[in-house]
Amino acid sequence: MPAYHSIFLQEQDVRVIGNFAVLPLRTRTRGPAYTLPALPSGTSELEIDPDSESYDALDEVLSLFRANTFFRNFEIRGPADRLLIYGILFISDCLGKIKSGMNSREAEKALMTGAMEQFAIPGDAGFPLNQSFEAPANKHDAETLRQYIAQVRQELAMRLHARVYAGGNTPSKWWLSFNKRKFMGKSL
Prior knowledge:
globular
């Protein structure tokens, strides 16, 4: 059974830095990504339809995380798959920061701190997937990519927190059961 790939591979006119897609996001976080419309009233972030105009790559990362985590190999078919890979690796990192005894506020603080900490981008020596990602062409592109990835990390951390703590003040054991799995045997 093959891994699930991004539905955003078919998107036209997507900005690409290196070979990393800069896709539009439904976000409240400041950054270079084009902002998609907010969810229609009455629609839950947990049950957004992929055909909705508000569905973004981060919704896809969260929905495909559990299924793709089991794969050690992943054929990259385009720039949107690279965003999917980075998002899955970041979620794995975030789940490692949440402990089973943490309440919602402590976990939110740990996730946001993790999202804002220093990180490597493609082309940096510390980036774990440099063999599959191209470095940005110049310093301006590198800074734009760093801002975009920071925006993705912050928004993913907020959305993941909402899902892990959807049932109240204790984390979902179902989500935490994935904290030791390593997608493609890698971690950020």
